[in-house]
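Hi team,

Filling in the usual template for the complex we talked about on Friday. All components are listed, including any nucleic acid strands or ligand strings, so the model treats them as one assembly.

SUBMITTER: L.P.
PURPOSE: interface mapping
COMPONENTS: two
RESIDUES: 649
SEQUENCES:
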Amino acid sequence: MNGIGRVAVLLLRAPFTRRAWRDVWFCTAGAITGLAGFAVVVATLVPALALIATAVGAVIGLPLAGTAIGIARRLGGAHRQLLWLATGKRVTAPAAPRAGPGVPGRLGWQRLRDPGGWRAIGYTGAKLPVSVAAGYAAAAAVIGLVDCAYPLAWVAFGNRPAGTRLKPLKALFPVYHGQHWVVRTWPGALTTALLGAVCVLAGLWLARGMTMLDTWLIHSLLGPSRVSELERTRAIAVDDAATALRRIERDLHDGAQVRLAAVALNLGMAREQASDDVLRELLDAAQAEVSGALDDLRRIARGIHPPVLDSGLADALASLAAACPIPVRVRADLPERPPQAIETMAYFCAAELLANAIKHSSANTVDITIYTERFRVLHLQVTDDGIGGANPSRGSGLRGLAQRASTVDGTVRVASPPGGPTTVTVELPMRIRGGGT
Amino acid sequence: MRVVIAEDAAVLREGLARLLAGHGHKVCAAVADAEALNAAVTEHAPDAVIADIRMPPTHTDEGLRAAVTIRRDFPSTGVLLFSQYIETLYTARLLQAGTGGVGYLLKERVGNVADFISALERVAAGGTALDPEVISQLLRKPDPGLASLTAREREVLALMAEGRSNSGIAGKLVLSEGAVEKHIASIFGKLSLEPEAADNRRVLAVLRYLRA
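RESULT (copied from the run log):
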């Protein structure tokens, strides 16, 4: 009994909550945009598909379909905005399609291949029945509210003097029942009010249901897809890691390394003043330790983020080559700087491949070529004239390289016939998928 | 000697200034970035500049670029680069501007005050002062001529590349000056450097080293 009572109270309290009336306005606005949007998208997409079906008409049909998808996407934005205004729930937009190069890009070809756009079309369709139901719910709640006011109308206009019959008053109900409900009597007014209250409750709860359904639809069709969301977060993780490593190197450089250099300076000045042999020996020993500590720090910093990489990949590779015991030719053609994470990855790949060439292949010379292909792919090719026979499935180094490259959808190819030469090609994207620019 | 210091870490900037002042050198200006360095050099025309490579605003190779400009515009000013890292590429860029009046040392070398001051004086006098680390990096390169050098000759050549005079090399290796001269003659022979002006051959031998 108590339980039923509580449910009843909950059901009856709905009209007095703010949320219920926010649902009503969300349903009203959503129904209008949903229906209008459906009409516009269908009016654009159907002729577009019909044109594409004629094959010749595809010239106009394809861009038109792209326009329909673009409209659906924009409408999706409006629906997300509505959801945010009504419920405070934010849904991030799916990644925008990137304009490809050339004429197709200018014609909006990328829109046709935009999964976010097609999902927005799906939402436009799914939203149609929801719009109808939501509009109905909102109308029921509002009409019910009007009906509730009938006794007021009676008191205000009808029952004066006492006993007079009320001028016939038509009542509206959101359920069709063949004829108009006409209120003439005081009990009739009260009954209307009671039925109105039922309508309000039913309308509000239906509105709640439709709001929840629409929220779910918006989340699943107008938000980023799981794959694109994972790509986005992976791009952030890769970029964060690169930034963090660079910051650590900079902190070392501006912090510990400076302090140790200052210690060396002060030890040197102290040694000049020292007249005692024992003291001088101790200061020399301290000096040697400071040098050792700085050597260690330099090695660590180079492993984290080689400072010369800040001047660009070409300089960094040239420096790598210069410090190498065998002749290394570097050819770099990089009109555009890749993102930091890609630069770092390319650098460490080159360093590892160079070390491999020296250690395992008894090479006499190494060629490093790096260039960008159509501004999209960064090619790194390391060729040595050594004995060949490198096997990526055996060596953990090459496998590790491939794994690292795969974190940004990069690839590693190894061509190493016995007797050489060995060529390793690393391809990295110039833009991390899911990342910003 | 009149010196300008460019170093963004205040503790090192002030430490260097104190050290130089203690050895009777005049520090005309101690600045923290490349722009201020160029202004200070223009104003004071110092005998030597000590410049950090990585300085604001980009913290990449400002000091190196400033060094090349200063060597070009103020030939009488020697530039000693002072860095946490030895980058062979930077060495090559620095030496492209000419082998005289330049130096490149790791910051911790300041711990050996006498060597540091003499390196600075060498650079101011138009000589070279390269960090032993630079030399050892460059020495890894094969060169048939260089490969035929004995261990002792390599040591001598390394010290020549550091910019030391014969007597300096003799002192460092505990040899007589005559012995050093013999080694040098042998080096010139193995590198097939024709006997022209002795100084020229010296620079050529060092360059062979650095380019190899």
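MY TAKE: The mean pLDDT of chain B is 86. Residues 43 and 88 of chain B are 31 Å apart (CA to CA).

Thanks, L.
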